[in-house]
Each structure stands twice: as C-alpha cells, then as structure tokens.
Amino acid sequence: MAPAGDVEDKIGAGRASSQSCRKSGQARRGDPHAVVVEAAAALDRGDAQAALRRLGDTEDLSLWWSRWAYLVWLTFLAELAVASADDDLCLRTRAAIEPYADRWAVLAGAVWVNGQLRLWTARLDVALRRWDAAAFSAT
To answer: In order of start, what are the domains of the chain with their CATH numbers?
Structure first.
C-alpha cells in the first residue's frame, strides 16, 4: 500500500495500472468494481479470509479510484484489517488513515457515509490491543 500522503501519486500511477485491473477476472464479469462488492459481501458474511483473498485485486482497483473515493476505500480497508485480525494490515491501514483522521469518509454526495476517520483509527487501535490509543481516538 502506498503511503497515504501520496494520494496524487496513487491516482496518477493508478490510471496507468487500470490496464491490469481490466485484465483481472473481475473484468470478465463486466465491472472491475465487482471485486470490492465481493470482498464487502464476504465481510458481511463474517468471512474475513475470503475478503482477504480479494485484497490484492481491491488494492489494484483502489489505485485508480478518484481522490473523492479514497477515504471510503480506507474505511473498507480498515474494516477488512479489523475483521482479519492481521496486525500488519491494521498497522499499515492505520498509518494510511492517520493524516486524514479528522476528515469524514463520504462517497457521492452522501450516498455512502462511513463516518469520521478518527473512529476508524479507534477500531484499528482496538484490533491492535492499543487500549489507551483507542480511547483517545474515540473521544
């Protein structure tokens, strides 16, 4: 995962990598975003391992998402990290969210609102068993 501070670089690099997304199995279904829906559905079913198997594809897709979708992407990644109990993924995701912690993750004019990113850092802190940091982040 690229450092969160490199959003502009991610977007530029992602446009070039969209070719690799089109070649993935998701493109055969007609919509490259299907992989995110599949991973989110796996999380909803409580199947973190199935969602983790989609992580590479979802990260590839996130590289060419527009800047306005990046914060929602980070909340998806946080949910996946927490559900998987993968400390490395939790740490990487928390580091990516931290620069945006006082912002809200909102997609498409409030069609999808995932709340203040500070609360997502708190969830990641709980998953990492950082109780004091979680309490601080949540307040």
So the answer is: 4-138 (1.25.40)
